[in-house]
């Protein structure tokens, strides 16, 4: 399972911390994120844990709040999605020792980022 190959919860928590260290000082992405970084990091940990096959934790959240619902009203454009992937890739490469697992996670997140971009584009065009 990918979750184990990544290094389980400690690796995911470290990855998320390193990723948001980059995001919250990035001139392009910072305006898209709320001030409550701790809440954002926690939500990302929960998301990545489940995405990679770890323990399900979303019972704590409203199940209607999926990626589409969370992002649809944000002014996300291709440049934002590409920068998000760039920063996440750097954090993954810095954090995850297993290269195969890192590459798989990067690919899953790239697909997810492009899906979010399509949702945002469709909502803004509609």
TrEMBL record:
<keyword id="KW-0408">Iron</keyword>
<dbReference type="InterPro" id="IPR001486">
    <property type="entry name" value="Hemoglobin_trunc"/>
</dbReference>
<dbReference type="InterPro" id="IPR044203">
    <property type="entry name" value="GlbO/GLB3-like"/>
</dbReference>
<dbReference type="InterPro" id="IPR012292">
    <property type="entry name" value="Globin/Proto"/>
</dbReference>
<keyword id="KW-0813">Transport</keyword>
<protein>
    <submittedName>
        <fullName>Globin</fullName>
    </submittedName>
</protein>
<keyword id="KW-0479">Metal-binding</keyword>
<dbReference type="Pfam" id="PF01152">
    <property type="entry name" value="Bac_globin"/>
</dbReference>
<keyword id="KW-0349">Heme</keyword>
<comment type="similarity">
    <text>Belongs to the truncated hemoglobin family. Group II subfamily.</text>
</comment>
<dbReference type="InterPro" id="IPR009050">
    <property type="entry name" value="Globin-like_sf"/>
</dbReference>
């Amino acid at each position: 399972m990918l979750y184990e190959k990544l290094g389980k919860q400690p690796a995911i928590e470290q990855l998320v911390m390193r990723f948001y260290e980059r995001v919250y000082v990035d001139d392009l992405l910072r305006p898209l994120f709320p001030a409550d970084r701790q809440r954002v990091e926690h939500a990302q940990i929960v998301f990545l844990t489940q995405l990679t096959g770890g323990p399900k934790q979303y019972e704590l959240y409203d199940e209607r709040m999926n990626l589409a619902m969370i992002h649809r009203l944000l002014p996300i454009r291709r440049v934002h999605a590409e920068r998000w992937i760039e920063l996440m890739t750097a954090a993954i490469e810095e954090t995850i020792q297993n290269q195969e697992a890192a590459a798989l996670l990067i690919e899953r997140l790239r697909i997810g980022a492009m899906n979010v971009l399509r949702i945002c584009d469709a909502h803004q065009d509609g």
